[in-house]
Amino acid sequence: MRRLDKGAPLRAAIRAAGLDIPHLAARTKELDPTGRGLSPAYVGFIAGTGKSAREDCSERAADLIAQALDQEVDTLFETVFLTVVKSTSPRRSEIAESGGSAARKAAPLPEQLLDQRELSAYLRKSPSWIDAQIKAARDAGRQWPGLHYVGRSRRFDPRAVLDGLREQRTQVSA
Prior knowledge:
By secondary structure, the chain is mainly alpha-helical. 43% of the residues lie in helices and 7% in strands.
């Protein structure tokens, strides 16, 4: 369900009922057959106007809020048949990594070379793991993929590093 007019009718109904967010949440708990109701935070997201406000909510939430306000659901919310949700999490991206876990999404690739600290955060590996990989590659007589020396500092091309790790993974599994 999607709130109408960015939640203005909902906020007007809350004021008309003489309720605030915590009391509306408590009222939903009283009306919910399971006894769970909605949390004050969730009600605040739905009724709010700030950056954390949400346009969409579940049908259950819309029903409980409408009941608590003694209103018809369609005076406060509209039914949405298809919603494309984009995550606001910086750890998620829209590019799915082929192979491995289908549920895990690859982080967007940076357009520039990374230092070791940035690469370790990007790969979610420790800097000492990267050091060990570089040493193992050097001992095997090859250079770790994506490693570039700029003066005395190391820089990494994340695309080449990921390609090298994928290749290494296929060699191990074969």
